[in-house]
């Protein structure tokens, strides 16, 4: 039930428009039980880092202070208290890539 993110498409899409990677929905696992989607939130930082490293212009990450009690998509959300650290890492990756 995993979705596959093919990072080879990012440079191709960038020929036509800026690319924003939807990190959390890339990790969504459709209809795991009774119509509720599952997810792999432990992989959010990995997918986000790879997206920035391969040239994504931006990222979309759903966050919540209590993902287990979010009204939707809680199973694939990043806990809000982890966002600042991840964004700091992504900025560092972008700066490194741009300096090459």
Give a brief rundown of this model.
The protein is of the alpha/beta class. It is built from 4 helices and 6 strands; from the N terminus they run αβαββαβββα. The chain has one domain.
Q: What attributes does this structure have?
A:
100 residues, two-stranded parallel ribbon, alpha/beta, two-stranded antiparallel ribbon
Question: What can you see in these coordinates?
Answer:
The protein is an alpha/beta fold. The chain has one domain. It contains four helices and six strands, in the order αβαββαβββα. The protein has a two-stranded parallel sheet. It starts with 8 loop residues before the first helix and ends with a helix. The mean pLDDT is 92.
Count of distinct strands: 6
Which regions contain 5 or more consecutive residues with pLDDT less than 50? none
Largest sheet: 2 strands, parallel
Strand order of the largest sheet: 1-4
Task: Write down the overall geometry.
Answer: globular
Mean pLDDT metric = 92
The domain tally reads 1
Strand-residue proportion: 15-25%
Helix content: 25-40%
How much is the radius of gyration in Å? 14 Å
Helix vs. strand class: alpha/beta
Q: Counting H and I runs of at least 4 residues, what is the number of helices? A: 4
Separation of the first and last Cα atoms: 37 Å
H/E element order: HEHEEHEEEH
SSE arrangement:
Layout lengths: L8 H6 L5 E3 H4 L1 E6 L2 E4 L4 H10 L4 E3 L2 E2 L13 E2 L3 H17 L1
Parallel strand pairs: 1-4, 5-6
Antiparallel strand pairs: 2-3
Helix pairs in contact: 3-4
């Amino acid at each position: 039930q995993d979705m596959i993110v093919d990072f080879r498409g990012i440079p191709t899409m960038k020929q036509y428009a800026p690319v924003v990677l939807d990190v959390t929905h890339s990790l969504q696992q459709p209809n795991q039980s009774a119509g509720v989607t599952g997810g792999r939130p432990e992989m959010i930082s990995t997918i986000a880092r790879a997206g920035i490293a391969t040239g994504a212009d931006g990222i979309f990450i759903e966050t919540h202070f209590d993902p287990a009690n979010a009204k939707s998509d809680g199973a694939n959300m990043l806990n809000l208290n982890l966002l600042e650290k991840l964004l700091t890492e992504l900025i560092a990756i972008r700066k490194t890539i741009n300096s090459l």
